[in-house]
TrEMBL record:
Organism of provenance: Candidatus Roizmanbacteria bacterium RIFCSPHIGHO2_01_FULL_39_24
Single GO cellular component term: cytoplasm
Residues involved in ATP binding: G30, P31, N32, S33, I34, G35, K36, T37
Pfam families named in the record: SMC_N
Keywords associated with the record: ATP-binding, Cytoplasm, DNA damage, DNA repair, DNA replication, DNA-binding, Nucleotide-binding, SOS response
Entry protein name: DNA replication and repair protein RecF
Lineage: Bacteria, Candidatus Roizmaniibacteriota
Swiss-Prot/TrEMBL GO biological process terms: DNA replication; DNA synthesis involved in DNA repair; double-strand break repair; SOS response
Protein task: The RecF protein is involved in DNA metabolism; it is required for DNA replication and normal SOS inducibility. RecF binds preferentially to single-stranded, linear DNA. It also seems to bind ATP.
Domain of life: Bacteria
Amino acid sequence: MILSKITLSNFRNFDTKKVVLHPSTTIITGPNSIGKTNLLEAMYVLITGAGIRDEKQDELIKIGEKTATIEGKLEHNNDIDTLRIYLENGITAKKVFSINKTQKRLFEYTKQVMPTVFFTPKLVHVIDGEPASRRKFIDRILSKLDIEYKKRLGNYETALRKRNKILEKVYDIAKLKDELPFWDTYLIEQAAYICEKRAWFVDQLNSGVAMQNHLFSIIYTEKEISKKTLQDTFDKQYQIKSTRVGPQRDSYEIFQKNLLRPDTEAKNVHQFGSRSEQRLALFWIIVNELKLYEEIFKTAPLLLLDDIFSELDEANREYVVDLIGKYQTVITKTDEEVIKLGKLPHSTIEMVK
């Protein structure tokens, strides 16, 4: 599948914008704050139906406007499909998905398009932020890879809110111990699948693609939810009115070892990694995400790269260029990077103020 064209109306900082994309590589150049990242995000929204950081819908619509549209042409097997997402703000936000003018539910819509991965420095909070950022990011990837995971995660989060409401409203301990067991059993059942898939994903990362001269690994720590852990933490739950065990408390830690310095130990990237090492750790996850999509869905993903070359060493710059040559890629970059990318079949879009 190839995304051949995208048309925007009132998306982010754009009034209107039409872009024709190269089947191999499209290079977007221009000064900072011109909207290069917003253009990539529009492509991501068109394919996935969501922003890169789960922004509120009104943040995707140009300030002062109430509606926005993103439309694209998707070519595959000599056919051309028209994708369209209509956004509308109001008392109730409205989002309408359609393919060839036929409305689709989000699940139906995303099944008919290729997977997409997006690297942008705006996502570096996944590495240098709180554990919740990493959980949310990995949950999003797993929800794309496995619809059952998405369902179980939604079930778990809904049940967890209901259990916490009971903890907040019921003060009688005897009544609490009568009402909670149903939700305890349900949460344990959902959590078993969630934790199994999270462990599987970590195994895939640890046995997947490596970066040049850098060996990354990830450790998954499960905050087990069981009859025993719920019972052992009951007093604390009663005191703070919140469930203290379960997937919502799981954590991921990423470590990096410099292969050029084999005598040094792997270090925690979140705590001790440089900015460039943290960006490389994010890219490591995204490259493995790319490979998993290709393996599971049997189709080449669309690769969106925003400011990827900044702070990468030469070996990893060469790795990125090689990767770009294997997928339809849209990339933002500065003028000094033109020569390296110019060796690839490409078109260039220059954005000006």
